[in-house]
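Figure 2 data, in text form.
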Amino acid sequence: QASRFVVCFPFLVKMGGTADEVQMTEASLKQMKKAKVFKQHEKRVNCIDFSTDGSYLISSGDDESLLLYNCLEGTIHKTIKSKKYGCGFVRFTHHNSAVLYASKAHYDDSIRYLSVHDNRYLRYFKGHRHRVCCLALSPINDTFISAAKDDTVRLWDLKSNQCAGLLRTKGIPQVAFDPSGVCFGVAYSEAKTYKHHVKLFDARRFEEGPFISVSLPMTGRADGEIVQLKFSPNTRHMLLSTYDGSVMLLDAFDGSKIRDLAGVINTQKLELECSFSPDGEFICAGSEDGRVLIWRTETGDVVHELGGHAFPVSCAAFNPRYLQMASACQNVVLWLPDST
């Protein structure tokens, strides 16, 4: 059964008091068109994230700026500069007015907790000894996880700048919470054994070690390390993406590989972000050649491609509440189904 969403984009869809209900189907995804293109970033966008209620999008760029967008109006709500420390891997907290992001300056590896309402730092989280490469927030409380190029994973609480837990890995890790918030996953590539490792931990007893540990052979080029781990909203699947353009669908219950998703080009070894649709039925990912690919999760078939980016698409995501997509290269694009 197709998930139901509400198209609510005043500059494009006439509301007239009540919004039209539409379905997320293969047909509606094939109708996706550029609704708005934002060209304010001066360098590559390294991360985008939708707020939980879908009303806002935030982007972090290599130009050391954060941009906050109103998704319902198709406008830029605020621009925030982070010239001293840089910014990456931005994530909304449970409030639309606050975000976490990682510093990218070579002399600072901290995580910053920012109130975007008044551009004020609420807290700093220090402990990593190399650049942070992933942030994941619990869907049920104020716990969050960070992973860094120092081969460590740290657990934190937004209310305290003291690290609540530390895990060491044998490669640069990626992390993600499952939708229930009960467990989290840690994935990394080990060059010595030429294998990908995926480990699942109970968030309440992580110090006891993983309750599931799976190893997968690395395929393709030798530089195909894991660059992203994600759980599907329906808890059934996980996504692994790598620097060589591989996108792998895994079973979230036992970690076994289901299939590869073909089509992504990444010869430049870029960090290309993937995303599940809110119902978990579709997957999207950017490609080096300016395309956004959309697969059906159940079959692995490409159901549609969105084109028109002038540069490699580093990020692609579905809005969690509305029938809307976002993608980014240096420019940020909001996509809506054609209403004509």
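Caption note: Confidence is low (pLDDT under 50) at residues 1-7, 9-19.
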